[in-house]
Design goal:
mainly beta, Immunoglobulin-like, 1 helix, globular, T9SS_type_B, Gliding motility-associated C-terminal domain-containing protein
């Protein structure tokens, strides 16, 4: 189609009323077709919008009716502007792809309704403000996002459905994501929100387990499990824009951990964690990762190291793996582990996703060979890509649980 016929395939009930674009009938936007509204768009309860092409909204957006698409199309809705845009309505709006690009000095996007993203959300410019929790951004199982930064994220609740690993695009003044690996259950639903503020009056920092020394009192994440029973692997980020400087200092006697407010015991509990430095251009610089035992308010803490480091000659860890079949460093070798058969090894990628776990690790037939072989891991039996990973080793020695953690490097080229 060309010209006017390409612009709209079916259009019934569209009107411009006092600087508004109002739909009371059926509006279909065909694939490879553009539809633009420079006035506030109002889809009434009687209105049906089937957006399979490109829908450009340059002003407010309100949906009280049906706003959806067909599965075979690849439509995109673009919110573009330089003054505040309200995204509201009584009905949930379903988007395949969505783009936020607003340069307003005032809050660019004010969200007071639920929007569902099924493919890709692009955060070009502008914070999506849902800080009053009157709306929600929902990412369905295969949905993802790009371009998040301090310039563009969601300030409010974000929900993720499904088992795929996911970085929640959340923040408050700054982009401060959390990352979840929901293991293998596609029925899991999690909601997360970040707060750059203290919560001490409600959850006193003095009420804590003995192992916890100092709690990050200026920021926290609220993670809830809306559906499912899995214990998620959670990663929290550290950022020098928000996280106090003391949490970036290293000590031989302490380490970073994730702590959770436990409602039944009315205190902060140590969920433990492994810290990894990020070498990417992300706004945040560190991750702390652990498998949580419950859901509530989370933040970072400095804790006492749980167990003494074992003697250096008791366990020797060779942290370079080159699984190319040349007989050199083909496995993750832990020398001496055969002397401690009651052990467990876990390996995570840089985003906190568990890629391997094993019990009774040894030096002969139960070893990590660069594949995701463990229970509840991603891409089981697929060769893992080259890169930096981190491991957790726990083993029993007499009546103590000894623990080692650190970096693991996979390179199929070897040295």
């Amino acid at each position: 189609m060309t010209g006017i016929s390409k612009y709209l395939a079916i259009l019934l009930g569209i009107q411009n009323i006092t600087a508004q674009t109002v739909n009371t009938g059926v509006l279909t936007i065909e694939p490879n077709t553009d539809f633009s509204t420079f006035f506030a768009f109002d889809n009434k309860a009687s209105g049906d919008v089937l957006h399979n092409g490109n829908f450009y909204a340059y002003s407010d957006f309100k949906n009280d009716g049906l706003f959806t698409y067909t599965d075979l199309s690849n439509g995109k809705t673009l919110f573009v502007g330089n003054s505040q845009q309200k995204i509201e309505g009584l009905s949930t709006s379903d988007f395949q792809n969505i783009e936020f690009d607003n340069t307003s000095a005032k809050t660019p996007f004010l969200l007071t309704t639920e929007i569902v993203i099924n493919k890709l959300a692009s955060f070009k410019n502008g914070i999506v403000d849902n800080s009053l929790d009157t709306g929600k951004v929902v990412f369905n199982e295969n949905a993802s996002h790009t371009d998040t930064s301090n310039l563009s994220f969601v300030d409010g609740r974000v929900e993720k459905k499904g088992a795929a690993k996911f970085e929640f695009p959340i923040g408050d003044v700054y982009y401060r994501p959390s990352l979840n690996d929901a293991n293998s259950n596609s029925n899991n639903i999690y909601t997360t929100e970040y707060f750059f503020e203290t919560i001490g009056n409600i959850h006193p920092y003095t009420s804590k387990e003995e192992s916890i020394i100092t709690i990050d009192e200026v920021e926290y994440w609220n993670l809830t499990q809306e559906q499912g029973t899995d214990k998620a692997v959670l990663s929290l980020t550290l950022d020098k824009n928000t996280t106090p400087a003391i949490f970036f200092q290293e000590s031989d006697d302490t380490e970073l951990a994730i702590v959770r407010w436990d409602v039944p015991t009315f205190k902060w509990i140590n969920e433990k964690g492994v810290t990894t430095d990020l070498l990417t251009g992300a706004e945040y610089t560190k991750l702390v990762t652990t498998q949580v035992s419950g859901y509530s308010i989370f933040t970072i803490a400095i804790v006492k190291k749980e167990n003494p480091e074992p003697p250096s000659n008791e366990i020797v860890i060779y942290n370079a793996v080159s699984p190319n079949g040349d007989g050199i460093n083909d496995t993750f070798h832990i020398k001496g582990i055969d002397n401690f058969p009651d052990n467990k090894v876990e390996i995570y990628n840089r985003w906190g996703v568990k890629v391997y776990d094993a019990k009774s690790y040894n030096e002969s037939d139960n070893m990590f060979r660069g594949y995701s072989e463990g229970r509840d891991t991603v891409k089981k039996n697929d060769g893992l890509p080259d890169g930096t990973y981190f491991y957790i080793l726990e083993y029993q020695k007499a009546d103590k649980t000894m623990r080692r953690s650190g970096y693991l490097y996979i390179s199929k080229e070897g040295k």
